[in-house]
Amino acid sequence: QVQLVESGGGLVQTGGSLRLSCAVSGRTLSNYNMIWYRQAPGKEREFVATITSSGSTYYADSVKGRFTLSSDNAKNTVSLQMNSLKPGDPAIYYCNHAPYWGPGTQVTVSS
Predict the structure, then answer these.
(1) What's the pLDDT tens digit per position in 7-62?
(2) What gap in Å lies between CA 24 and CA 75, rounded to an integer?
(3) Which residues of 37-57 are buried (b: 16+ CB within 10 A; e: fewer)?
(4) What's the burial of 80, exposed, middle or buried (CB within 10 Å: 0-12/13-18/19+)?
(5) CB–CB of 91/6 below 8 Å?
(6) How far is it, in rounded angstroms, from Cα 107 to Cα 9?
(7) Whole-number Cα distances in Å, 83 to 12, 13, 66, 97
(8) Dihedrals φ, ψ of 30, to 5°?
C-alpha cells in the first residue's frame, strides 16, 4: 500500500522559512516524479514544484528563487525548503507521487 505523508507545515511570519517534507512508503521514491501543489481557500490547486525521477527540478514562477526541492532516496523523502515566505504563499501544500496524494499540510504566513 502506497502512502504519502506531508509534514513541516505551520505558522511563520512574512519573510520567514519553513521546510516541508513528504515521506513515501510502499514504493521507491526515485522511480517517479514528485510534485508539490498548493491550494489556498477559494482558489484552485496550483503547481508549486517538481523533482523528476532523474533529479531535475522545476518551479512555478511564483516560488522560483525562494523554494528549493531536495530528495533523500535513502529515506524515501522529498523536502521543500521555503524561504522568504510571502502573504501569497499560505495554503494547504500537497505532495503527489502519481497517482497518489498526501493529505496535505497547512502553511500560514502572518504579516
Answers:
(1) 999 999 999 999 999 999 999 888 899 999 999 999 999 999 999 999 999 999 99
(2) 9
(3) bbeeeeeeeeebbbbeeeeee
(4) buried
(5) no
(6) 5
(7) 10, 11, 5, 23
(8) -75, -5
